[in-house]
Amino acid sequence: MSVPQLLVPQRISLRNNSKYNEAFIQKAIADNPSILGLGEIELIDKERVQAKGGRLDFMFRDKNGRRYTVELQLGSTDPSHIIRTLEYWDIERKRYRQHDHCAVIIAEEITGRFYNVISLFGGVLPLIAIQLNAYEIDGKLVLVFAKVLDEIPAGLDDEDTKPTNVTREDWVSKTSEASVALAEELQKIFNEIDDSIRLNFTKIYIGLTLGGIANNFLIMTPNKKPVIQVAIRLNESADIDDIIDKAGFETLPYEARYKQYKLRLTKTDIDKKADVIKLLLERSYEEWK
After folding, report:
1. CA 161 from chain center: how many Å?
2. pLDDT grade, residue 122 (50/70/90)?
3. Which residues of 70-80 are buried (b: 16+ CB within 10 A; e: fewer)?
């Protein structure tokens, strides 16, 4: 019986590497975008010329239309690299306002200074940092991309989570009794998971409280028609996509910035698909409670 052997690869530096230059790494990423760990993305452009000068290394998009402005830096991050990445992100988001945009920095070493600079923005920027680790094994290059700073999901404004004087009657008057009643039907399903959950009527949506504290892993927007739009906070996954597709819900595009699946539900949906709805709400509750 053979004894398993452990191979400890030797990490190599790509900066000023005579064998593997930046063009080689760029081609590897462009040919195989999935290696970045950003999900199912496709290449829109490479070396994208910017109006104010310079070239963006990559522009990718996911299946929901979200765009990723990606800059590659061999070696360590430096202030110019950070500023350049954010500048390109800002140019692209202003040019294509109909899309959601995220900035991505890739470098061999994400330095402490990088974290210090990013902390100044207080987590308000949609920014992802990926460390590139390169190894050479038997004359072949192995690239490992590790996400070291993930995007901080956007939260709600403080004023949205504070207690308000908005009542059920206010929502009925501006939408409909039938639609508001659907929110109450959803609360009944949620109470099977946690009986401390209550509806929280605000000016722009109906959220939830958990133990008296706002916790909006489900946001509901009533309608004048007997339907209700719901935004369920869940990390996007093929498993959840499959559950929703098989149930046959009417859907809106996934909101990547807020990590929300959006559905339009009728009373028939709630009555006949309560088990599926409860499963989705349980998943959201476990992820975000």
Report:
1. 21
2. low
3. bbbbbeebeee
Its domain, for residue 134, covers 10-149
Same domain, 138 and 197: no
pLDDT of residue 159: 45
pLDDT digits (tens, 9 = 90+) for 30-53: 999 999 999 889 999 999 988 777
The answer to whether residue 123 scores a pLDDT higher than 70 is: no
Residue 117 vs residue 198, higher pLDDT: 198
- In whole angstroms, give the CA distance from residue 74 to residue 55: 16
pLDDT greater than 90 at residue 188: yes
Are residues 59 and 138 both part of a single domain? Answer: yes
Read off φ and ψ for residue 117, nearest 5 degrees: -65, -45
166 and 133 assigned to the same domain: no
Residue 160 DSSP SS3 = helix
Mean pLDDT taken over the chain = 87
Q: What secondary structure letter does DSSP report for 81? A: H
CA atoms of 238 and 243, how far apart (whole Å):
9
Within a domain: residue 2? no
For the chain, helix, strand, coil in percent to 5 are 35, 35, 35
Give the position of tokens 């807020």.
Answer: 258
pTM exceeding 0.90? no
Each residue of 134-166: b (16+ CB within 10 Å) or e?
Answer: beeeeeebebeeeeebebeeeeeeeebbeeeee
CATH code, domain carrying 202? 3.90.1150.200
Structure tokens at 148: 């070291």
| 166 lies in the same domain as 104 | no
* Nearest residue to 39 (alpha-carbon basis) of 126, 145, 114, 131: 145
